[in-house]
Every structure is written in structure tokens, then in C-alpha cells.
Amino acid sequence: MNRNIVLGALLAGVSLAAQAAQFGPLTLSGFGKDEIDVSNNVGTVDNNRAMPPQCYGDAREVLPASRTPGSSQYCLPTSVGTVTAPSPMFQLTGNLHHEFDNGVKVEAVLTKRIRNGSNDIVGQNWFEKYVAVSYPSLGKLSVGTQLARAWSRQDGFSYPIGLSTAWSETGAGFGLFPDAVRFTSRMFYTPYGKLTLEATYATNHAFNTYTGPQVAGPAPTPRMLELFAQFSNHDNLIEFTFETSHGAGQSSWGKAPFVGASNLPVLTLNGTNYYDSLPRQSVAILEGDHWFTPQWMLTWGLRHSYWSGESTTCGYVNNVGNGQPGCLYPSGGFNYADALSGTTAYQPGYSASTNDFLLGLTHYRDLWTYTAGMVYLGRARTDNPTQWGQDNWAVITNLGLYRKLPEIYRNLSVYGGIGYVHFGHLGAPPLSMTSVTQFGGVNSWVSSHAESLTLGALVTF
Residue 346, exposed/middle/buried by CB under 10 A (0-12, 13-18, 19+)? Predict the structure, then answer.
């Protein structure tokens, strides 16, 4: 039996026996779930016996080597088949807190999330690790490792309708701030509803990148400002998130940790130095829920993403044996073009922006929940002369069915979903996607569409 299935069953069993535990000032809570996805039209190799090798530094497979048969870097699939992928996950949060007689509350929060036996976010040992102090008439100040609102709130809207990967894990946002200071205001009451405002400043150390080793060269210090506003009344929940950053590793993985970029590359060609610019990106997200009745809810979202573009290169100012710039490892880059004439070591990056949309409908009926939703990832605006996916688009849809199982355990539910993904054309995926295989391994170079089936169980405690 697959070890991931066994792990998921064990985690679910532990969760079933547990409830949110209170030990004086310590509260323990979390969830466990196991999910199995079956997708067709998935790109494979060796007649469906394996997945294609990873194109390191070229997850979109746009460089010539990744698409040239016989090349050592060739990573396109050679066959198309149906793939089953289990995904067990477990999360545990400890909250140590104390409230003084004057209303001041202090707390320390530690969260660990494991997916498929390892950290859910690559290179990040803790999902949350922060201390906070709050006062009812002022607000809350938090310092430490915290989830970005751009990811956590997009996930909060899209996960219930089965579109978490399509919405919260795409676009120019970040998912986790390893080092952040956040201030959340008290709740303001207006004649139209309740309003909360928030600001977060995040940073990280230069060279703190999970893509490769430290090498000589000018490495930027990443810095981020995130603004968040939440408004609610009887019929609506509306949220706005804005992030602007520079110096971080650039990507369109909306769950990416806010870590340093690879060293800014420098290439000397015919006596001319070529420097990459400081990477910048931003995202603006407006999303919400509207309740027509207590049984019917509409979910919607609008998102604008911007990237300054970042080159990929093997030519750092770094001597390797023969005194020439060495290809220690390829920088991933973002929205880069073909190499400059006369070299294969420098592909300049170009700025780009996209608009994406979310729409969903939910119906509650006793123990049952029915959902339907779609995400549209739009074409990009860019001057990049190389086709990096800017002319492609994608529609991802899902029909979901959920049922609570109080007969077994009050916080247990099971769910299923039928999904469909359709690309505008074969080729590189839309810029809002982080890789060519983000949706169940379906490769937009060889499959224009695919269907999927998801079955899962979730227990919270």
C-alpha cells in the first residue's frame, strides 16, 4: 500500500481521537485530512511509467533545451495518461496565551503543517511562529513568522469551493512571511457594517533563497508591505489585499515564502557588463462572499498581478577553475527572453501584468453542501519578444459535494469534486501559473484540457 495513504490514515485516526484541547493557558487545535486526486491527460514518460524530469530553473519549459529531444535538459512528456496522487496533510497549532485584568492579552503561536510527509511550504519549518500583544480599544501587534493575507484569505474563499490551487496558489502574491511585523486595528463599527484594517511589513536576509547556494555577487534584501482591509455586514464579507515588494525571489506561486532572490546576475560580454534589475512584484486582490439567503452564497474575486521580470543566467561574476564566469546553478528567472546574441548565459527579464477572476456558488442543505466554481487566468501584458505564456489563458472549474458525518464524529466531513482545466492553446502556461504542471500534472505543452476526480476526508479539532 502506498505509504502516503497509510500516513494519511494514521493522521486521520489521530485526529478522530482528538478534540481542541485546553491546558490552562495553552490551546491545541488543528486538522488532518487525506485527499486522492485522479487526473487524465497528464504528461508522463516511458509509457505512463513515470513523470517527466523537473526542468530546474525552467518550470515553464520555455528554454530551447527543455524542448529539444535528446538534450540532457529535455523535460517534456513523451506520453499522456491517467495519474492518481494521494495528498495527506496534518496541521497542529499551539497557542499559549494570557489576558490581564486590564484587557491586555499576550500570546505565542506555533503552527506546523505537514503534507506528504514533509513541510507544506518548501524550506519553511514553521507555518506560523510569532508572539503578539493586543488591547481591545487599540488592536493587535504581531511579530514573527506569519501567513500572508494574500494567500491565506484567497485560500479561505477558494478552498470551500474546491479551487484553492487554481486561485490561492497562482498570481503574484506570497504565502508566508518568515520575518514580519503586523498591526491589526480594532474593529470599527459603521452604519453599513464592520471594518478592520491591517498593515504588515516583512523582510528576510539577503541570500536566504531555497533555490541554490550563496555565491559572490550583489544579493538584494527582500522587503514587503502588505495592506489588508475586511468589511462585513449581514449579507456580505468583502476583503481587499495589496502587496508590494522588491528583492524577493520572483514567481507566480501564490503560496511562495517571502525569501531572498538569487544573486543579481552580472555577465561580461565583449567588454560590456549586463546587470539584472532589482526584482519587484505586486498584487491587488478584491474578493468576497455574498449571502442571498442563509442557504445560498456567491463567492467572487478579482486580482491584478504585476512582475518586473527577472533574468535567468548561468553567468555570475564568480571564478570557477578557469577564471571565467561559472554556471553554478541556474537562477529561475521570471518572464525572461531568449539569450542575448552571442551567449547562452543571460536571458533578460521583462515586466508583465495579468488580470484573473474567481466565481463560485454554494448551497447549504442540512448536512450537505453543494458547490460550483471557476477560475479564469487571463492573458498577460508584456513586451517580452519570447513566448513565455503571455498569450495563453486557462479556465479551471470544479463541481463539489460535501457532507458532515456527525454520526461518526462531530467534526468529520467527506467530500468529492469533479474538475476540469482548459488552456487557450498548447504551449507555455499563463503567467499566473507557477509551472507547466501546476494542475495535477497536466502539461499545457501537450494537453489542452483535462478532467479530474477528487475524493477526501477532513477532520478538525
Answer: buried
| Structural domain 3-460, CATH architecture | Beta Barrel (2.40)
CA pseudo-torsion sign 252, 254, 257, 258: positive
Pairing of strands 176-185, 449-460: unpaired
* Residue 448, number of CB atoms within 10 A of its CB: 16
Cβ(313)–Cβ(330) below 8 Å: yes
Return the C-alpha cell found at 126: 514553521
**What does the pLDDT look like over 210-243, one tens digit per residue?**
544 445 456 678 999 999 999 999 999 999 999 9
Query: Residues 6 or more apart from 435 whose CB is under 8 A from it?
Result: 59, 60, 253, 429
Contact (Cβ atoms closer than 8 angstroms) between residue 327 and residue 316 = no
Tell me what the mean pLDDT of segment 143-159 comes to. 98
33-72 tens-digit pLDDT: 999 999 999 999 888 778 888 777 788 888 877 888 877 7
Tell me the pTM: 0.90
Q: Tell me the CB-side half-sphere exposure of residue 239, using CA atoms within 13 A.
A: 23
Taking the C-alpha atoms of residue 219 and residue 278, their distance in angstroms, rounded to an integer, is 9
Instruction: Write the burial class of residue 298 (CB in 10 Å: 0-12 exposed, 13-18 middle, 19+ buried).
Output: middle
Integer angstrom CA distances of residue 198 from 83, 239, 242, 458: 42, 11, 11, 31
Distance of alpha carbon 45 from alpha carbon 50, whole angstroms: 5
- Greatest Cα pair distance in the chain: 75
